[in-house]
Amino acid sequence: MPDRPPLAPMLPPADGLDDSAWLDVIHKMDEVYSQLVADEVALEEKNAQLEQSQQFIFSLLSAMSDVLVACDAGGRIEETNRALAELTGRDEAALRGSSIAALMADETSRVRIRHVLGTPALQRGGTVVELELRDGAGQPVPVDFNCTPRLDAAGRRAGLVFVGRPMGELKRAYHQLREAHEALKRTQQQLLHSEKMASLGRLVAGVAHELNNPISFVLGNVHALTRYTERLRQYLGEIHDGRPVAELAPMRRKLRIDHLLADLPSLMEGTLEGAQRTADIVQGLKRFSAADRDERGPVRLNEVVEQAIHWVRKGTAPDFIVHWQPGPDAVVEGAPGPLLQVMLNLIQNAWDAASGAGAKPPTLWITGHLEAGLARLVFRDNGPGIAPEHLGRLFDPFFTTKPVGKGTGLGLSISYGIVEQHGGRLLAGNQAGGGAEFVVELPARG
């Protein structure tokens, strides 16, 4: 506070004024001076607050990564930020006062900006306009601007505010996102195929047994046909050499030509049957091991379950007791390979759970239902059931309760996805009497 001036010395009383009047005058002067000092202090505080507000606004403008342009009603730039200066290669001071149209890189953008400036009823919520600005190197840069009107104290439009982001940055981000999405899809397909191969590997022993029977049958028939061919060649050679008919009869009986000719049709029929059986098994393996395709059609659900039971029991679980109670012949729309994988995973998991818990004997009950256009399969085993803390994570990828090396944690997750892709649901829970229960629900064809 400024130093107070010294009080004037007491003057001799003037005409009409006594000492008390002079004291009143001095007190009034003191009050006025105190008020002036208080007003000066308040003004200094307001100036400091104004400087802080200006510094705060300046820091906000400088920190913005988006381009900001505030112009008057005629399109003259009144305020901008560092992002625009860096984009255009011009100083902020040089930008102020210039025309916003001068920043445009082509005539189309200039026409658009003039249209926005000349539209009196611009939306308060903002209008999006795509413009191309010229950068510091003279190259066009697409910028997606949001334009909003700026109002004065009377509520009239005083200018416009443009806020935008260069689209090149967004395009790069979108490209990176798309690449990451494609990589994720490829990884998902690889995981799906790897799980298929793991399931297929568990069935190799059963498939080898399945192939052994028809191949052995075909091989035995081929050996018989080889012997028959040698006899026929020997007999026909004698005929071609012109041997008399009377001499041929003993040879015919010795070579058993009549028996050979009678046996040939059944040999050929059996060989063809064995070869067809082998081809069917191989074709089934190819359908199961092939990568997913969009080939969908009617699938008989009971046949898929029966095939899955057959393969699991022939492969890894020959002692597995499976009680299969099929429901009505339900037909669903889908791909047979993925649906077979679901059934294989559920049956194999039931075997692993029941046998791992020492159930004697490991048993699975499968029942089929068809109600109101919904095909329903219920899988119940006599294993230990699912721990309550695991129920919420059962279908999570890579979650498994099996020992290391015994499971990937992908079987149920992939099965859940396959059933969902077919418009159905895969549910899991525990039976009242113990053991796990899985339910597959699929929409049946009408």
Largest sheet descriptor: 5 strands, antiparallel
Beta-strand share of residues:
15-25%
Total strand segments: 12
Shape: elongated
How many helices in DSSP terms? Answer: 12
General description of the model:
With 446 residues, the chain is an alpha+beta fold. The chain contains twelve helices and twelve strands. The strands form three sheets. Strands 2-1-5-4-3 form a five-stranded antiparallel sheet. A five-stranded mixed sheet has the order 7-9-10-12-11. The longest helix has 45 residues, at 19-63. It is elongated. The model has no long low-confidence stretch (mean pLDDT 79).
Keywords:
5-stranded mixed beta sheet, 446 residues, alpha+beta, 52% helix
Please outline what is shown here:
The protein is 52% helix and 19% strand. The protein contains 12 helices and 12 strands. A hairpin with a 4-residue loop joins strand 1 (67-72) and strand 2.
Helix and strand layout, with pairings?
Blueprint lengths: L18 H45 L3 E6 L4 E4 L1 H7 L3 H4 L11 H11 L9 E8 L5 E12 L5 E10 H36 L1 H37 L4 H11 L1 H33 L7 E4 H14 L6 E5 L5 E4 L1 H21 L6 E9 L2 E8 L6 H4 L19 H11 L3 E6 L5 E8 L3
Parallel strand pairs: 7-9
Antiparallel strand pairs: 1-2, 1-5, 3-4, 4-5, 6-8, 9-10, 10-12, 11-12
